Amino acid sequence: MPAVRRVASWCATRSLAIGSASIRRSDPCNNNNNNNSSSSSKRRKRKMPRSMKAPTKRTKTKNKKTKDSKRKGTKKKAGDKNKNAADKRKEPYNSKAADYKFDKMIPVGTKMLARWRGDGKYHSCKILEGKEIAKLPDNSAAKKAVVAVQEKLKTMSPEELELVPEVKEEHPYVYYIHYPAFNRRMDEWTTRQWLMFDEELKAWEDTLNTNRSVKSDVVDLRARHVHTHHEDHGDFDEESLKAHEEVTKVKNIESIVLGRYEMETWYFSPFPAEYLKHKKLHFCEFCLSFFGLESELDRHLLKCQIRHPPGNEIYRSHEQNITISMFEVDGAKEMTYCQNLCYIAKLFLDHKTLHYDTVPFMFYILCEVSDVGCHLVGYFSKEKMSEEGYNVACILTLPCHQRKGYGKFLISFSYELSKIEGKVGSPEKPLSDLGAVSYKSYWKKVLLDILRDRKKPLSVHDLSRMTSIMHDDIIATLRDMGVIKYAKGEHVISVPKSLIDASNKKRKRITADRTSIRVEPADPAKIRWNPFLVDQKKTKYHFTELRPPDD
pLDDT of 77-127, one tens digit each? Predict the structure, then answer.
């Protein structure tokens, strides 16, 4: 009989949960049915609190015990509180870390510590995206990251493994993270083994406090303080910058194939939607047409007859172990080629606006020359008519060709064109971090080459006319070099001998290696070029209209 009562009680509770629906389904014309429903409803209401009062009574009992203990005068000792806090610190995982130890995905936006592949230390990071490992394609960057971590764990020593969170290898998610202290091109996919919550760091942090050198080898000592990587974002206001970073926070294309090179991309690029299902794109290195499958590129190469950029060759030079060539391409005549070039550039430049309208721009394409044809190395673009005096709108050397002198060559070539036009110029802002380094290095070298051989004093105005570098860029460079001094009521340029000796030593070290590819700055005698607009009105950036800077 007790079993029957329990079943009846469960049925009453179940019918109460759907009681309103049962009443609606009853026949409104049947009064007896309505009376029965109302009476059963009352019985249910009397029975329902019985099941609900059990936890309430337990809670009251617990509270009663607490009150009784207070009445008796029992108090918690201060030592107990400190002991509990110490025990809590010793726990390897608290509830937050343990929740995401095994099968739960860490939420997007979580701030953690991550082991960076650059130096093997833990740095502050932010989760941008998470994916399930089982659903990843084998050739994806996320899958490769999982395999790389597993291989690295196999080669780590027992001492190094002690500093890795005790997470099962079967953790089912992989994460795309951003390091606030680094440029966004350092964003990467990583696994839970390489991620660490603050409480996990505290778990073994005390053991490293006695040996600061060991700790600095494992954890960035600034890891808990987020040092945001700041760049000059030019015309981007704070709201536009946040919107830009939100849309482009995860790379949509993981790598591209251009000729015999395969390059991992750095940033987001707005390729057409039908290509986003392919994480690797294949480019024709001559006409820059791109395809999602290698077989499509192979069929294209059988028909493609182009072997150089579709423009006029304006420069050719035989450099160390290589022959290079420059082509001028009009964005109004070769729109498809120039748009495809912009797609590639956006993969390696972050805060640059992608212009689908290439009509106002001229493109200057740098190529390596071989028996097969002219292979893309880098380029710069410039406006046909710039009101701000910019001589470069966008400049790029492909990652596979960097550290060979191509960047300095492109910069010097842009200034040689400005000299032919009879104007001063400056690159369009903002510059990327690598672009800023290249420009500052070029400006420093050019100014040192002039100042170390000149015995007569030179003004900033004279230097600007000789180099086509704007006054502001010259002044900023001289200040960075520390060669501007204030003497007898005026500013004087004084170059110390140590600075000249360091420049000569660096040049000798670079030229000593005769086996690698090395490109010197542009030779003005080899340029075959005329300005695009020969009848334009003179502006304040022309030599004839140039005025000395105000003090």
Answer: 445 544 454 444 334 333 456 666 667 889 999 998 898 888 888 888 999
DSSP letters spanning 142-200: HHHHHHHHHHHHHH--HHHHTTS----TT--EEEEEE-TTS-GGG-EEEEGGGEE-HHH
Secondary structure class of 335 (helix, strand, coil):
helix
Tokens coding 176: 């795309």
CA pair distance 153, 117, nearest whole angstrom: 13
Instruction: Give, in degrees to the nearest 5, the angle at Cα 253 between 249 and 256.
Output: 140
pLDDT, one tens digit per residue, over 11-54 is 334 333 333 333 343 344 444 444 444 444 444 444 444 444 44
Q: Residues 6 or more apart from 230 whose CB is under 8 A from it?
A: none
Three-state secondary structure readout of 412-436 = HHHHHHHHHHCECEEECCCCCHHHH
Q: What residues form DSSP beta bridges with 128?
A: none
164, two tokens: 């890795």
The catalytic residue positions are 428
Half-sphere exposure of 127 (CA within 13 A, CB side): 20
Residue 432 CB-density burial (10 A; 0-12 exposed, 13-18 middle, 19+ buried): buried
Whole-angstrom Cα distance, residue 112 to residue 197? 5
Burial class (CB in 10 A: 0-12, 13-18, 19+), 215: middle
d(CA 542, CA 427): 16
Q: How far apart are CA 478 and CA 26, in angstroms?
A: 93
439 strand-pairing partners: none
Residue 219 corresponds to which tokens in the numbers above?
């954890």
Structure pTM? 0.73
Q: Which of 336, 335, 340 is nearest to 361 (CA)?
A: 335
User: DSSP letters along 466-499, please?
Assistant: HH-B-HHHHHHHHHHHT-EEEETTEEEE---HHH
Contact present, 114 and 196 (Cβ < 8 Å): yes
- With b meaning 16 or more CB within 10 Å and e meaning fewer, what string describes 396-426? bbbbebeebbbbbbbbbbbbbbbbebbbbbb
The DSSP annotation for 199-257 comes to HHHHHHHHHHTT-HHHHHHHB-TTTTS--------TT--HHHHHHHHHHTSS-S--EEE
